Amino acid sequence: MNWWYPTLPPNASSFGGEIDSLFYIILYITGAVFFITEIALVWFLLKYRHREGRKAVYIEGNTTAEIVWTAIPALIVVALGLFSQPLWSRIKVDIPADAIPLRITGKQFEWHIKYPGPDGRLDTGDDFTRRGELHVVVNRTYSFALGSEDVIHSFFIPVFRLKQDALPGTSIPGWFRATETGQWEIACAELCGLGHYRMRGRVWVHTQEEFDQWQASQARPAAADTTATPPPPTRRRAP
Amino acid sequence: MSTAAAPVAATHHEHHEMSFVRKYIFSTDHKIIGIQFLFLSLFFLLVGGLLAMTIRWQLGFPGRPLPMGGLFPQTMAPNGMILPEFYNALVTMHGTFMVFFAIMPLLVGVFANYLIPLKIGAPDMAFPSLNMWSFWLMIPAGALMVAGFFVEGGASAAGWTGYAPLSADQEYTGVSTGQVLWCLSLIVFALSSLLGSLNYITTVINLRAPGMTWFRMPLSVWALFITAILGLLAIPILAGALIMLMFDQTIGTHFFLSASGGQPLLWQHLFWFFGHPEVYILILPAMGITSDVIANGSRKPIFGYHSMVYAIIGIAFLGWVVWGHHMFQSGMNPRLGTTFMISTMVIAVPSAVKVFNWLGTMWKGDLHLHTPMLNAVAFVAMFIIGGLSGIFMANTPVDIYIHDTYFIVAHLHYVLFGGSLFAIFAGIYFWFPKMFGKLMNETLGKVHFWLTFVFYNLVFFPMHLLGMGGHMRRIYDPNQYEFLQPLAPMNKFVSISAFLLGLSQLPFMVNFLWSLFKGKKADINPWRDNGLEWTVPSPPPHGNFAHTPTVYHGPYEFSHPQAAEDFLPQNQPLPAAPLQPGGARQETR
Questions:
Q1: Interface test with B, best of A70, A149, A186, A229 (most B CBs within 10 A)
Q2: Residue A188 three-state SS
Q3: Sheet holding A141-148, edge to edge
Q4: Which chain B positions have a beta carbon within 8 Å of A6's beta carbon?
Q5: Which of A172, B6, B17, B141 has its Cα between 20 and 30 A from that of B518?
Q6: What CATH number should be reported for the domain whose range is B26-535?
Q7: Does the beta-carbon distance from A41 to B159 stay under 8 Å?
């Protein structure tokens, strides 16, 4: 992290670059407003500071100026909102249909990732689940169904610019496509209890060959899938 | 239209001797109640600040024992090493104390109580006994909240936002009694706030002195009035949600517990439907105080008074339709995101109007940079940053990355500390002479201001950069993550700055206590201001005004061309206006 020219960390997903661009666009717009207003403020402080014999000018307002400085910010913010809307829809609303499905479940304090196995479909015999390990193929689109077994967690892969809360009792769809191979971290971004700070996972973005090797090494009968979703916890209190 | 104030006679027949208890403890005098709120909320501000510094110790120096940490019991910090569960309680209680027991009572409890009757020319609040109850309910509320630290399992650890199901079932946090106490305390707090709001609204509507028309009210009174309406409408929602949450915790309901068919998102909707108006409850009075002080310090009328009023109303109205921006990543239907993004961004418009009008007020003024003015200008400078950083997270795609990171922490502190707290300091320095009849020391005040301003920025500005680096909120040990390890030096820098920011409050404490007992005597109007409170003795007597004042013009007639001095109190008529070229007399406001 450079203290003087702050930049966002590296990005490794298909939509992360667009989020970063939008961040910088807002940074430039707000940066300009920041400098204009703060410089005006400091300039007024110096120029109109009380001196002997100085008298304030009796001004109650200026309607034209007020209309201008109401209209300009209004136009900028509404335009910015409309301009950003398509990206939001692409990331959160339009989940690609032809993606490789995953099921991600948060649980105090780890992430469970269910893979579709070689057949590419969930809820078949070759599914398998890994704790805290997300292995994906570079430049392939993955969709996920995100859930939680207990409290609210938030599935956060900083390097993918991906964040989505995981809600108990609800399955939330999402997707991503990694664009760089490498190994990074998965975090939980929503306070979820005393182990929140260590609810850490790892993501590997492989080439197809590497992934196939890894998947082959994971192959085992579904019956041995020890980390499959357990039944809901029994309630403490009688109904 | 203004309405006649209570008859003058009413101010006199209470002048019999009152016992000490009735006069200073169970008092119904709005001024005493305001001062009681001042002491109570400054105490909680100190508590919240100490909790914040404890948090910063853990983040800056994870794994190192806390200095004097041996004072903590084994269940919190064995041998001074903060435990993760204690850390979560610290984070929760810091937020809770600061929002509900420091900033909100400082702004509303202190300034609404103290200023509204004085500024509108009323002898007291409309319901003085309710007002007394409003203060005395804060004592059990505060005691219940503090008690959380002393019960088994510790204080609430589910965040100040109390997200269910984490907060709804003790299995998830290990905190049982503390979480129930958190709910109970805030329910009592809600009742206190409601009584206050009812009182402020009624008082402003009914007790304005003759001539005090709506558009002659100071912006501080406007802001406090609109804030009270927000409080009246928003706080019952909080209370309702808290009761539901407490039932989930104690009697086996499942409003928010999904395992039994409840809906966790319902809590967030209810909490933020209250919570976003609450954000404006925490900033509008600060804007009002700032407006009063900046006009005074600039010796100029407020620029665009009417649009300032409409901006307050606009912010308050928009505040009801933006709560979803806290929930963009919550799993709420993402199609709602766009609606909430646009409504949120539109709030930038009235906010910008206010900033430009403050700048316009200073423009061509005669700036007296006394301590209140310095703090009010700092409010404007910092609110600009807090407002602009809000645009990042209002933008739904950008929010995906920065949500729940230190970028949010930076933003909210730029608004709540850089904004609200600087305005609170401006208000305390400005009205202290009226409250206690003593002047505060200007030199100490300026030392306090500059130290606070510098260290405040050194604490919170780098948090934007931490957030850009992806640093999550509310994590006990950031070094658990490899990608956060490079940020450790910055975390250390922020922590050291935070300790210095804490120390920077010493001049304020010394100044406050020293001036209280040994300060120079204040005359009636030390700031040469126009408000009605400056036409009565410092401190004002019980009943405030010997005679109901008549108001002739607005509160910002500074440097009026026909006036002999650069200020003109509201109870003095405008000097005879010259004939306009058209022959009509210049209209008086």
A1: A70
A2: strand
A3: A128-131, A110-115, A100-107, A141-148, A172-177
A4: 464-465, 468
A5: B17
A6: 1.20.210.10
A7: no
| Chain A closest-CA separation from residue B386 CA (Å) | 10
pTM score of the predicted model = 0.93
Could you tell me which residues come within 8 angstroms of residue B308 by beta carbon, excluding any fewer than 6 positions away? Answer: B219, B222, B291, B302, B353, B354, B357
Q: Which residues of B569-583 are buried (b: 16+ CB within 10 A; e: fewer)?
A: bbbbebeeeeeeeee
* Structure tokens belonging to residue B526: 């030390």
d(CA B505, CA B215): 37
A78 touches chain B (CB under 8 A): yes
A-facing residues of B in 315-354 (CB < 8 A) are: 329-331, 334-335, 337-338, 341-342, 345-346, 348-349, 352-353
Instruction: Name the phi and psi angles at B322, rounded to 5.
Output: -125, 5
Residue to test with chain A: of B271, B333, B398, B449, most A Cβ within 10 A: B398
pLDDT band with cut points at 50, 70 and 90 for residue B462: very high
Nearest C-alpha of chain A: how many angstroms from B484? 10
Is the separation of the CB atoms in A95 and A114 below 8 Å? no
Residue B521 is classified by DSSP as B
For residues B292 and B309, what is the distance between their CA atoms, to the nearest angstrom? 13
Of A34, A48, A185, the CB nearest to B365: A48
Q: Are the beta carbons of A189 and B380 separated by less than 8 Å?
A: no
**Distances in whole angstroms, Cα of residue B498 to Cα of each of A89, A116, B94, B290, B293:** 40, 49, 14, 25, 28
Q: d(Cα B558, Cα B347) in Å, to the nearest integer?
A: 30
Q: Does the CB of B396 have a partner CB in chain A at under 8 Å?
A: yes
* Interval B510-565: pLDDT, tens: 999 999 999 999 999 999 999 999 999 999 999 999 999 999 999 999 999 989 88
Q: Which two tokens stand for residue B256?
A: 């928010």
Determine the residue type at B488. A
Place of tokens 């989940």: A95
B464 and chain A: CB distance < 8 Å anywhere? yes
> For chains A and B, what is the number of CB pairs under 8 angstroms?
305
Contact B391/A30, CB-based, under 8 Å?
yes
Nearest to B512 by CA among B461, B440, B406, B414: B440
**Which member of B299, B301, B475 has the closest CB to residue A196?**
B475
Q: Hey, what are B265's tokens?
A: 């998102």
Residues in chain B: 589
Closest to B461 (Cα-Cα) out of B414, B416, B415: B414
Domain coordinates of chain B in residue numbers? 26-535
| DSSP symbol at B533 | G
Tokens 């919240």 label which residue?
A: B48
For residues A205, A207, A212, A214, the Cα torsion angle rounded to the nearest 10 degrees is -40
Lowest model confidence (mean pLDDT) among B9-13, B149-153, B446-450, B462-466 = B9-13
pLDDT of residue B415: 96
Give the residues of chain A that fall short of pLDDT 70.
1-4, 219-239
| Interchain CB distance below 8 Å, A93 and B335 | yes
